[in-house]
Amino acid sequence: MAKDNQFVSQIADIETDFPQWYTDVVVKTKLVDYGPVKGTMVIRPYGYAIWENIQKELDSRFKAMGVENAYFPLLIPMSFMTKEAEHVEGFAPEVAVVTHAGGAKLEEPLVVRPTSETIIGYMMGKWVESWRDLPLRQNQWCNVMRWEKTTRPFLRTSEFLWQEGHSVFATGEEAETETLNMLRLYEEFAKNVLCMPVLTGRKTEKEKFAGAVATYGMEAMMHDGKSLQSGTTHYMGQNFAKAFGVQFTGKDGVLEHGYTMSYGVSTRLIGALIMTHGDQRGLVLPPPVAPVQVVIVPIAAKKEGVTEACAALCGRLQKAGFRVKLDDSENSPGWKFNEWEMKGVPIRIELGPRDIENGKMTVFRRDTCEKNELDLAAAERETGASLAEISENLYRKAEKRMHERIVDADTLDGLLKGVDGGNFVRAGWCGCRACEDKVKEFAQATARVMDKENSAQKCVVCGKPSVHTVLFARAY
Amino acid sequence: MAKDNQFVSQIADIETDFPQWYTDVVVKTKLVDYGPVKGTMVIRPYGYAIWENIQKELDSRFKAMGVENAYFPLLIPMSFMTKEAEHVEGFAPEVAVVTHAGGAKLEEPLVVRPTSETIIGYMMGKWVESWRDLPLRQNQWCNVMRWEKTTRPFLRTSEFLWQEGHSVFATGEEAETETLNMLRLYEEFAKNVLCMPVLTGRKTEKEKFAGAVATYGMEAMMHDGKSLQSGTTHYMGQNFAKAFGVQFTGKDGVLEHGYTMSYGVSTRLIGALIMTHGDQRGLVLPPPVAPVQVVIVPIAAKKEGVTEACAALCGRLQKAGFRVKLDDSENSPGWKFNEWEMKGVPIRIELGPRDIENGKMTVFRRDTCEKNELDLAAAERETGASLAEISENLYRKAEKRMHERIVDADTLDGLLKGVDGGNFVRAGWCGCRACEDKVKEFAQATARVMDKENSAQKCVVCGKPSVHTVLFARAY
Predict the structure, then answer these.
(1) What is the reported pTM?
(2) In this structure, what are the phi and psi dihedrals at residue B65, rounded to the nearest 5 degrees?
(3) Which of A76, A391, B7, B409 could pair with B338 as two cysteines, CB 3.0-4.6 Å apart?
(4) Does domain B294-401 match CATH 1.20.1250.20?
């Protein structure tokens, strides 16, 4: 137990200092490290493997929707950014700019993409000619850059990895439908792959993407009750199509502008799952994305047959399709327990001489921190069942917390009390920007998403009739 | 046949104007398009799908070697570049530089990575402490930027996609062995996945990577007899370890610098396979990376049962694991034949009422342009066998051409005549830079790789005793 305490003491208290807990966990588990330039991160192998699993799951979903992957240039002419008025206003303050290249000053400065609506709009303007070319659905997995003042690994860094999907449709209706379909795709993915419940809905004008007609977001509740925007989809109407000449000849022979939409999630999702599932011991990784789903720790490894039995079990489970690691290092079992618990491996199997003799294995579940003795002969089935139970349990736990922590308020004081208590607060809103700003000023909370139905009577700020019921929260 | 000619006429003659043939093919088959900034490219879905297949094949090979993926920042402090003297000399002239970000001038300009030895060296310096941390093998799939004067899609563009692997070892011997092992991995990959024969060997001092002790390259012969450098591996000795303080405590307790190596291939490989296998009709894609391996074209599609039979066949082949497309568009069969031949699909299956009645299918092989009637009932087996034969045949054809076109020379005139005739020329070299430069000046050819054995008697330029037998060629 001394070792246990020693490890736990390396991580700040999750309840009293959640920001430090987060930093401790992401650095000590080697998910990430700080890069040499302020605000940059290095995604280390253990973190990158989570990203690869996220990519694989999302990519197959996109492809099933008819989306094709492509790659567009990193550098965007500065003049492109200014073609959509709201877009430049939103992104210009945070872009990084290439002014020199190949030993000379460039004629026009180039922006390192903060997002690619403009350059993809330009290319789609070249490609789309007739209604036969539509819909056009493309996606890219790439790096983007937004120069942020305060940064934190995965949550907000100057450079991050993401996917950005961009599609053109012949009608606004189709583009809007796709915008909502992609939001549902993200929601399903969050639930089934990240084991993370989310709330989805439309964003307010203030919170929407710069240049969009409508932005939809999914928000997840973190351990501290704050919200993390985990994915967004945007309906652009004809804004970008007009700015970049994306035109097509319709079936009726008439030339018309297309309707575009875009959608993205990023390495921020790694931050989201850490802050959703983590506990005092460290990471708790959802089985579908865990780089190691099962770690096997030999007990009394020098006793006859233990090493062989562990290797055999490892081989069996790998063959069954699980991601398994056999920790046959020189460290003590207690050290290994702590290490892999901190690293959030869903299942630990301990196998010693007595287990082997009895045809048993000791299975530790990271989510409940409980041990069970299970049949060694049924290891494949038991592992599969346990991983499924862990996924289910992680989701249910997070969902229960989220629902317990959504409260209603009909006054600003009530709203403040709600968010101070680590809750999301549902309240009426008249729809005006002044009242939205007032909430921010008074309670340091922002409108996360709007409910589909307006169930509130009056605006939580001014008392005028409510137009939208809004979920307010403090957010990352 | 009118349509046939119409299509062929869109592509420049492969024998008399190979550069234009290349441009025509990559643009018309929608592999790639030109980006808005000079020297940039957009990799379109058909091209990107090839890259995804390349990535998948290479990535599994790297992982089997114990390499882990990670992600390092795009922007590198300018001061890092200058820490290794040769490195900065080699790369400084072609970097793009970020001078402004977040609305302000940066204190230190940041370089958009042309390669990541410096920043990865810096991070590895932080991570490596003891011999227990070694070997450390990491790789990243990312974009890099080199501001080039003359550009061509896939072959040379200001931005391109690649993988760069970087490893640290405790001894120079291990690092050198890994450098050669990775070269062999690339060679095996080129053969079995790209169906492309390559010649491998060490580069001369002039041609080596800026900062390396030794660079090894693989060179492939293109249709026009020119060479394309298709992959390189570099042994760095302690050059970068010393520049970035990559030090470890050995088993003996002594602090020592590590030995590093790196290796990379890029989207250039797509250009390589196009120029290796392509013909007058357009692309000829190797089955292992072809986005579509089999296209099914219905004949007399409106006749009863044809559409259903084609869909059933498509389903069967997809289930068997092949990448299959059923072209049920409104276009005529002749139009489809041309389109998919130009796009290089390895196998076309034509299925009409008579075929169905006879239990047959007509199979067109893109490599030989021959048609065969095969049993419909054995479609899975026949398709697998044909794809394997195509891969084998593509490799043999390219290998035969390459070996026929390697000639020996013992005079500069002979060397010039050789490369003028579209050959690689094997010749003796005294090892001095002046003679290497003379070959370039006289024959516009460069030293591609050096043979392991020095089989030549004297230097092709100065006549002094030969120290290395060198493969000279004109190169992309």
Answers:
(1) 0.97
(2) -90, 0
(3) B7
(4) no
